Amino acid sequence: MMRDYRTRVRAILAAAFLAAYPAINAETLPAKTIVPTAATVAPSAPASAVKPWPGRSIRTATALEGIASATSSEGAAAAGFGMRGTLAVEGLFARPLVLETSAGYRWISRTEGPLPLPGAALDAGWRYSLPGMFSVTPLAGVSLEAAFPESGAEAAFQISAGARFAFLLSEGDYLSVTPFASVPVAGPLSPSVSLAIGLRSENPWMLPMPNQKPSVRASPDLFSPDGDAVDDEVTFALRVRDRSLIARWSLTVYGSDNAVFRQWKGSGEPPRTIVWKGESDGKKTIEAGSEYRVSFETEDALGAIGKGETKATCDILVIKDGDRYKVRVSDINFPSDSWEVSPKDSRKLLEANRKTLVRIATLFSRFPDYSLTVEGYANAVYWSDAKKLADEQKKELIPLSQKRADAVKAALVMLGIDEKRIHARGLGGEKPVADFADSGSAWKNRRVEFILEKR
């Protein structure tokens, strides 16, 4: 009879708790099984196929206890007796943290008659599990009781501290013994010591696995890995909701062609930061003025995938070359057989060239003792015939590349650079950056380069 009563009380209290905080009533599940509702119980499985729940879990407990107290009343010793019911939650914020609330009724025996004390209490503690299915939980809390002496009702507020000793009787059922002391803060009561003894039933509940929502942030937004000790590297800050639930992770930098440029990956908890100095996984060289897409992907213990993205932009690179510096920046591009840096029929090309020129002008202000040489280049057509190539170089490529260098010089002067500090020269088809025979990339030879030299 008593067992049936405890079972009904336990079911009612557990249902009330789950209405406010849905969870899963099981300690273990088969790997990668997601149970969506609190009513679903994990199916039985061989021990070898069952793994511990990888996420957070909590434990709820209900208890019915009898209380005996020793206190004083009007200078004489007095005894108190009563009962209380308790609902506790363990692991809601930290795994061994216990939060519990209780309500009960007790009375103090006096010569003039018993003093009724109905009330409620809130307690918190930290559970320590010991060998032999035994645990001890130091507790502290507050209680509020209503005292009913002959003169009328009066509130009694107390603080208390003690320890609960729990001994396992059967699966989920414990004998609990809790000695504690109470000190009144307000009201008609005196300090007391008490002993609560009763039966405690515990249930484990698995909380649903939260979405990890990975995110990545790059700092600084512009970096220039050229060894000048100014923003030579970019730091990626990796964030997830709970690192302990991550099974695998990767951080991937994609180039402008959407191919993998650099990648880091691992298992278990991801690092909080990763530093990138512009290197690639192969022989690729980072491109100045280029924007790189950065993707942070995670897989949690149940196989759920999450992804966060950001961007990192490689700024102008200044590479020291003897007494001079070669400036690596996204190319100034020109239409075929043209020297216009701002063609009216190509707004996209105009905008790209404008951004590059503004960056060059800004960079140049950091080198007041240097002059800037703009070198213009052109794409050869007769590259397969040495004689025709030499004739093309003299009659077409050098004049065209000189006009390109002059056009860029004029644009930089318009942006505020002293004309006397800028030189322009055309080099035609010299130093190609792409094979003339590659029709898909030969256009890259229509360009200008920038050289900083000590004046």
What does this structure look like?
- With 455 residues, this protein is mainly beta.
- 15% of the residues lie in helices and 46% in strands.
- It contains three helices and 24 strands.
- It has helices at residues 2-20, 347-364, 386-414; strands at 28-30, 50-52, 57-73, 76-90, 97-108, 115-126, 128-130, 134-147, 154-170, 173-186, 192-206, 215-219, 222-223, 234-239, 246-254, 260-267, 273-276, 291-300, 305-314, 317-321, 324-328, 370-376, 422-426, 448-454.
- Strands 3-4-5-6-8-9-10-11 form an eight-stranded antiparallel beta barrel. A five-stranded mixed beta sheet has the order 13-19-18-15-16, with no helix packed on it. Strands 20-21-24-22-23 form a five-stranded mixed beta sheet.
- β4 and β5 (97-108) form a beta hairpin.
- The longest helix has 29 residues, at 386-414.
- Residues 12-49 have low confidence and may be disordered.
